[in-house]
Amino acid sequence: MKKVGSSSSKPVGDRSPEHEKKDNQICDGFTVRAMMKNTVVRGPPLAGAFKERPAKPTAFRKFYERGDFPIALEHDTKGNKIAWKVQVEDLDYLYILPLFFDGLCERTFPYEFFARQGIHDMLEHGGNKVVPVIPFLITPIKNALSLRNRQVICITLKVLQHLVGTVGEALVPYYRQILPVLNIFKNMNVNSGDGIDYSQQKRENIGDLIQETLEAFERCGGETAFRKIKQMIPTYQSCIIN
User: From 1.10.10, 3.40.50, 1.25.40, 3.30.70, which CATH number describes the 59-232 domain?
Assistant: First the structure.
């Protein structure tokens, strides 16, 4: 039996958990408000390490559309290839090779085909003319990798394997600038959807391609290569058996 004057209502100021939850305010961490009552600390934003970046217009496309490159598209029974209007060995590598590397960021035909196939053709026939151009290739390589686009990364890794096989130890001083993005994607074993095949068996698994590229860097980079790779990618294990 209830006492006279008693009430089932809650005392003034008493609030239910639901009401208290509604009054909670969201704030950033490490602030004065974060230490106050009825506040919920907002979590840190996503780092976005794997987020794809937008591509900027490339100098390669500009020069191609102006007709500055001595190239044309040729079709045969094996597919598309570049018809060079001059001997590849006679090209001005210091001028033209960095422009083709700049085209690694392209993803639309025919720009992406000409840029990537052109690089492989010039590396194959360049010989000693490639080494002096290396300092001018690093920025385009970094730009392509920094897009975080799976297809662009896949193609760039194949180009890097061809490049280090051509110039060897001359590429080692630039490992520090090339390897950070490879460290991010090293354990990503997904198909990139790469639609380009340079007369080789398709290799579309980014994680496997990165491992192949690091092993090529170690084999072709001389005595200091493994140490340079290990500094940037601590989980890498040597592929050379002593």
Answer: 1.25.40
